[in-house]
Structures are given as structure tokens and as C-alpha cells.
Amino acid sequence: MPKHDVIVIGGGPGGYVAALRAAQLGFNVGCVELEAALGGTCVRVGCIPSKALLESSERYHEAQTEMERHGVLVKNVKLDLERMLSRKDEVVKANSDGVAFLFKKNKIKRYRGRGEITGPGRVVVHGEDGREELEGKHLVIATGSQVSTLPGVELDGDRVGSSAEALAYRKPPNHLVVIGAGYIGLELGAVWRRLGSKVTVLEYFDRILPGMDAELARDALKTFKKQGIEFRLGLRVTGVRVTGVRVTGVRVTGTKAQGNGAMVEIEGGEEIEADRVLVAVGRKPNTEGLGLDSVGVELDERGRVKVDGRFATNVDGIYAIGDVIAGPMLAHKAEEEGVALAEMLAGEAGHVNYEVIPGIVYTEPEIATVGKSEEQLKEQKIAYKKGVFPYLANGRARALGATDGKVKILAHAQTDRILGVHIIGARAGDLISEAVVAMNFSASSEDLARTVHAHPTLSEVVREAALAVEGRALHM
Ligand code: FAD
């Protein structure tokens, strides 16, 4: 029976990074992954393919609408969706192959199949060629998450699907209805809007991006509406019916049914006709088929694996990280947990600073946040100062033609420590890193304001927002 110091179940960003770090630290590591390709949800059907399509669709849109302003005349812009999708697949493959290369380089043994924990230190791999038993001193559950849906909404993988299907539609839907105005729904809604679909986003709350700073979410809503995305907020979807034939009912929007669509049913009897429905209402942890019951690993009230501050479950020698445990379902959070756990297992002081985990929406413009929102600060009765600076007053933003946006910095009223940074605008996802580093070192807004920022760059907007915290922004 193969023996390892560490066996990781799941080859996503949490699992593969834990495996890499553990191997770097001298452990003999095995990794069990169900799918042929390594990289998990993130690489196969998440972060990477969505960003590839966002980039391609943005270029298509730019060629149609923006290039002329730069004096670049592009005629007869056409969409070759097949090529766009195959480029996305190539990007995915390159990333997945990259993980496989790193496994080889670090001598991590890869097992293909479903991993099941059969006892302390025991894992069975159910592969295509039968079962194989492994023995490991430390077992790490990194099985991630899968799409969840609403009562009455059954995913058929075709008309009614998840982000995985929306990353691979073979033609732009006439009318795409997105259920859920979180980052996944908005990113994929934006892709298909740019590629020519009518897009309607339905959301239960009366705002988009629930949980994010409300001011930014309001700004984003205005921009997305200008881009032609329709929003229906504060309504409850009660069901979706796949329609093979034309269905009667109150048709509030949508194109003529072509006999192959879906009806989205809203509380109160209204129906919305679509030819594709993207369900983006959240994700649930992957805990089934892992043998957790039989070994007695406890789950929390939301079905996530319960761990302590060292990622240890209640069963000795079994740990968990990433989407399968509590916390934001983000690839970089999973990765950091993988690193921290491997270091702890090696007797080092691994640590994840959960106060400064950035969240980014890769729409155009991008939205990026870290730390507390204004709403959270108010709720927690923390007195704060606020500095805001618009992209409009920045030279580089004008040169880029990207003057929509702002940076908002929230700092403690007495100590000036930065508590939250919220950015909407071009390259917000890159700009936020400066704030993350600053906050990780407990910087004050004064620290940021007194740091030299290269000119002309968008990073000057961050510095000006830091100056604005004390009312001394220079270019406003
Ligand atoms: P996963 O990536 O889900 O990996 C778990 C792996 O375990 C999978 O490969 C699965 O096949 C395997 N597995 C499950 N059960 C078993 C078993 N019993 N045996 C063996 N293998 C098993 N996050 C970001 O930070 N940035 C983004 O831009 C971003 N975009 C996203 C876009 C979309 C459309 C989606 C769906 C998600 C996105 N995410 C993004 C979230 C991100 O993908 C997840 O947070 C991240 O993948 C979690 O990593 P993980 O390792 O915990 O789990």
C-alpha cells in the first residue's frame, strides 16, 4: 500500500497549493483528484475560463465601440465564438498542465479517482481501474464546492445551468436570465451582454453584490445598466420551467419563444421568458462520498467541514481547507490556507490574515474591495474617516479613456489605521494589492499618503484617496 506523510484530497487551489508547500517542506505527498485535469473549479470552470472570456469579450466590445476614439478604425468586426471558446480552453489547459508540471517537479504523486476516507490515516481511491488503498499520516480535505440552486429550480445542464455551462454556450443566447447578482452572475452576464445577448439579472435582495460596500454596488449598478444589462431587484424566483413548446403565462420580457427555452417564475405569478437561465445563487461544500460520516468528521450548520484555528477537524490527523470550510469561497483564500496548513504540519507558524482577503469582480469596470465596508463599520460602531478620489481627476485614467470610477479609503477616526479600501474602476483588481499589503502591515492612511506613487499611474488615485482622508487631496 502506498504510504505518504500527507495525502490531499482535491487538486484545486487549496489542495494543489497545500501539496506543493508540503512537498517544499520535505513531506512525501500524494494528491487524489477526481477529474482528469488538475486545478479544481478555479482552473477548470471558474476563475481562469471566466477571466479568459471576460478578456476576449471586452476586446470584441472595444473593437466595436472604443477603438475609433483612439483613431484606430476597425471595420467589419465579427465574432468568431468558436475561436473565442477554444482560446479559453487553451488557457485552461495551459494552467492545468502547469499544475501537473509542478507536481512532477516537486515529486507529488497524483492519484486519479474519488477519494474516500475509510479510517484515520486511510484513504481509498475509487478510480476507473478499481480501488487503491493509501496510507497517510496527515489527511487534508480540499474537495471544494459545487453549484447550489433554489427550491423549484432544477439544473438541466442545458437551458437551465450553472456557470460551468455559461462558460461554454455555443452561441450567444437571445435572452439570458441570470438568477443572482453576485460576482459570478455579473461577470458571466457581462460576457454574454458584450457578445450580443439580452441579459436580465434577477436578485432577491434590493441591491446587487450583497455584502460588498453599498456605495460601490450602487455605482456598479448604474454602470451595468448603461451597458444594457437589465436588473430586477428585490424579487423571489420560485421556479424555472423548461419549455419545449410555447407556454402561456404573463410574459413580462423576452424574445418570442422559439419552442426551446425556459420560463422563470417569480413570486406573485409573473413569468420571464428566456432561452438560457444561469443560476448563480451560491455554492455548497463538497462533502458527499468522502466517508466523513463513517470516520465521524463533524460538519457545521451549513454543511461545511468544521475546523479549528489550525484547520484540524475533530478527528485526529484529518484537516480541511478552502471552499469546503467556512469563509469566503475564493481561490486565494484556499491557497493561503493550503500554505498555512502545510507550514503548521511542519511545525512552522503558518498564518492566514482573514481581515485582509481581497474580493474582486472582474467586470468592466472592475470592482475590488478589502477590509470593512462602511455598512460594517457603522454596524460595529467603529468611528471612521473617509477619503474618496475619482478616476476622472487622474491623468493616466484620461489617457486610458477610463475616467469612470473612484477609490474610497476608510480609516479609523482616532488611530488612522486603514480599515477598508473599496475601488471601482479600470484595473481595480490590480490596484487593490497595494491596499492589501498596506493593511497587512497595519498601515495608516498617512502611510499611504506619504508613499511615492509613480506618475502617471492609476495608483495615484489610491494615494489621492489616502490624502483625501484628511481633506488634503491635491488634484481635486
Ligand atoms: P476546488 O477548486 O473546488 O477544488 C476541489 C477539487 O476537489 C475539485 O477539482 C474536485 O474535482 C475535487 N474533488 C471533490 N471531491 C473529491 C473527492 N471525493 N475525491 C477527489 N477529488 C475530489 N475565486 C477567485 O478567487 N477569483 C475568481 O476570479 C473566481 N472566479 C470564479 C468564477 C466561477 C465561475 C466560479 C464557479 C468560481 C470562481 N472562484 C473565483 C471561486 C474559486 O474557484 C474557488 O474559491 C476555488 O476554486 C476553491 O478552491 P478549493 O481548492 O477549495 O476547491
List its salient traits.
476 residues; alpha/beta; 7-stranded mixed β-sheet; 5-stranded parallel β-sheet; 25% strand; globular; binds flavin-adenine dinucleotide
Q: What Rg do the Cα atoms give?
A: 24 Å
Gap from first CA to last CA: 69 Å
Tally of strands: 22
Q: What would the average pLDDT be, to the nearest integer?
A: 95
Number of helical stretches of at least 4 residues: 14
- Determine the structural class based on helices, strands and strand pairing: alpha/beta
Ligands in the model, by name, code or SMILES, are:
flavin-adenine dinucleotide
Please state roughly what percent of the residues sit in beta strands, choosing from under 5%, 5-15%, 15-25%, 25-35%, 35-45% or over 45%: 15-25%
Largest sheet: 7 strands, mixed
Name the helicity range.
25-40%
> Which runs of at least 5 residues are low in confidence (pLDDT < 50)?
245-258
Morphology call: globular
Describe what you observe in this structure.
It is a single chain. About 3% of the residues have low confidence. This protein is 32% helix and 25% strand. The protein is globular, with a radius of gyration of 24 Å. α6 links the parallel β9 and β10. With 476 residues, it is an alpha/beta fold. The strands form five sheets. Strands 1, 2, 3, 4, 5, 6 and 17 form a seven-stranded mixed β-sheet that branches. The longest helix is centred in the N-terminal third of the chain and has 25 residues. The site of flavin-adenine dinucleotide has 35 residues, from α1, β2, α2, α3 and β4.
